[in-house]
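FORM 7B: Structural annotation worksheet

SECTION A. Query
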Amino acid sequence: GHPNPLEGIPLAVKAALTKAYNEGNARTIR
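SECTION B. Predicted structure
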């Protein structure tokens, strides 16, 4: 099968991006 592009991203990087994304949404909503 084809490799998942997200699997090439370190978990720490994904976690950081997710946190920043969620915080950005929270600031936008508020």
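SECTION C. Observations
The chain has one domain: 1-30. The chain has a mean pLDDT of 82.

SECTION D. Sign-off
Analyst initials: ____
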